[in-house]
Amino acid sequence: MIHTGRNTALAGRQEDAEELRTLVDLALGALRDASTKRTGPVAAGGPGAAASALGRVLDGGGFLTERPEPERLTELFEAYAAGAVDLTHPAAVSRMQCAPTAAAVAAELLAAALNQSLHAWESGPFALELERRLIAEMASWAGFGARASGTLTPGGSISNLMGLLAAREHALRRHGDVTRSGLTGLPVVPRILCSAAAHFSIARAAGFLGLGRDAVVTVPVDERGRMRVAEARRILDGLTSDEVPLAIVATAGTTDHGSFDPLPELADLAAERGIWLHVDAAYGIGALFSPSLAPLLDGLDRADSLAFDLHKFGWSPASSSVLLVRDAQHLRCLDQQAVYLNPSDDEAAGLTSLLSTSMQTTRRSDAFKMAASLLTLGREGMGAWVDRCHALARHAAARIAARPDLELLAEPVLSTVIFRCSPPAEGVPDPNAWNAAVRRTLLTRGRALLARTKVTGTDGEPRVHLKLVFLNPGTTEADVDELLADVAAVARELAAADREPGTDHDRPPADDRLMAS
User: Mean pLDDT, the chain, as a whole number?
Assistant: First the structure.
């Protein structure tokens, strides 16, 4: 337990540097202790255990105590670290969530201590220039030219929202400035085309933009979850005279299969019809760093807007998301003159802010940590790590395909693997509930973190599947084999229990309930 001498210490102030060092050491100690004690990717016990741990820290009270209690920081730091998911653990394969590089975390600390913002030049001059330069370099990755622009955002959902905002303004400009006048009385019905496997944020963005979720028309996909271009063309041909297509949204790296829509063909279709092409590459951008996988992104340079994350493939702390537009003029819908932030004479003198490229005003310097990771890894290192994660997915797929008790859905495209547990000969009452329970049991026991999804089979029936997402290049093939063995063992255990009367898959097994109590 610590007793700080300065309750009013401010990060970034020289006289308080030692206090900050003490607290950073405390945080690193909590991280070290949790790592030493943890036996799996997450603490056992499920939601009940997490709530109980927080309750012990608060000890019946709240966070805003009557008097300062800095000594409670030890308990808070230790509980947070102990209850966090260990993204470096090889069995943490449930989410597109990476363990960041140490360099990025150090940069995050410095950025937090200095608390720069990008809404006015004097709020973060170096940070502002850093983002501007990083955006220009990222645009070159995509093959965009000197007219490109963009911004960093809190996540892929916001990047997609901003891309569709630009598409809305571009498509509806003949009907006036809808940013100013709104959509009321609009003489046309907007439509957005995306695949049936597109991220849910596309429909949400349509709702946020006043278009309505019903404006989104989903295009059928093939057996690998890729948009069928012929179907997109058919839908466009079938639109009525008052329906206006705002955008075609292509997904580069779908959430489940990791599949890539056919970008060259979709770019041809968008150019032929004069429609905005937005590419959601939040996950799939990783392919760009790998010489062998980069062809998956052929045609990316023809997009009008592009969204991607470096807190997936990029090994940067969240949030590290990016929106790029091929032509800076398409962000003019965000133009904002605020006399206290970006007066025109200051802008003319070079004291420019980034207020007019973002939906946010106060905005942190996310470019700093991203730059730290990029400098640490380089293109060669990024590519090697992406290739390693791809190789792990292929290894997992081969092992699953070779096991009679597991069923592989398809070969992995990037680093995700979809499979399910095959019911034993004796059968189970409900294979979907059984597969879902396998995942929950592994989670509540703290053994493994797997994702789940539903895949509709050729018979039209949706079935629960399990998903592995490999973003940790430090994982070994032996780790993967052990993980799959754990999955199969729990599946056998639950299948045996399932044949007993009174089984309820909505409750964890008895040993899990004991741990959660």
Answer: 92
Given CA atoms 56, 62, 66, 70 in this order, what sign does their dihedral have?
A: positive
Q: For the chain, how many residues are written?
A: 517
- Residue 193 pLDDT: 98
Phi, psi of 198 (to 5 degrees): -65, 160
Put simply, whether the predicted model's pTM sits higher than 0.90 gets the answer yes
Q: Positive or negative, the Cα torsion across 457, 460, 461, 465? A: positive
Task: Decide if 495 contacts 434 (C-beta within 8 A).
Answer: yes
**Domain identity same for 386 and 511:** yes
Tens of pLDDT, residue by residue over 53-108, are 999 999 888 999 888 888 889 999 999 999 999 999 999 999 999 999 999 999 99
Interval 18-53: pLDDT, tens: 999 999 999 999 999 999 998 999 999 999 999 999
pLDDT in tens, 189-230: 999 999 999 999 999 999 999 999 999 999 999 988 999 999
Contact 459, 393 (CB under 8 A): no
Its domain, for residue 499, covers 379-516
Q: How far is it, in rounded angstroms, from Cα 138 to Cα 514?
A: 50
Strands 416-421 and 462-469: antiparallel
* Inter-CA distances, 117 with 127, 239, 364, Å: 8, 45, 5
Q: What is the pLDDT of residues 113-160, one digit of tens each?
A: 999 999 899 999 999 999 999 999 999 999 999 999 999 999 999 999
Domain tally, the chain:
3
If asked whether residues 292 and 419 sit together in one domain, one would say: no
* Domain edge (last residue) among 331, 347, 363: 331
CB 452 within 8 A of CB 439: yes
252, β-bridge pairs:
260
Helix (H), strand (E), coil (C) string for 494-506: HHHHHCCCCCCCC
Tell the burial category of 492 from Cβ atoms under 10 Å away from its Cβ (0-12, 13-18, 19+). middle
Concatenated DSSP letters for 18-72? HHHHHHHHHHHHHHHHHHHH--SSS-TTHHHHHHHHHHHHHTTS-SS-SS--TTH
Nearest Cα neighbor of 505 from 492, 495, 516 is 495
The enclosing domain of 472 has a CATH number of 3.90.1150.10
Q: Please name the residues in contact with 96: beta carbons below 8 A apart, sequence gap of 6 or more.
A: 255, 282, 283, 309, 312, 469, 471
Q: Is 301 left (phi over 0), alpha (psi -120 to 50) or beta?
A: alpha
* Alpha-carbon separation of residue 165 from 149, 250, 342, 372, 453 (angstroms): 15, 16, 23, 30, 29
Q: How many CB atoms lie within 10 A of CB 436?
A: 18
| Cα 415 to Cα 258: distance, rounded to the nearest angstrom | 7
Per-position b or e across 439-465, b if 16+ CB within 10 A of its CB: bbbbbbbbbbbbbbbebeeeeeeebbb
Q: 92 in helix, strand or coil?
A: strand
- In this structure, are 422 and 499 located in the same domain? yes
Q: Is residue 282 part of a domain?
A: yes
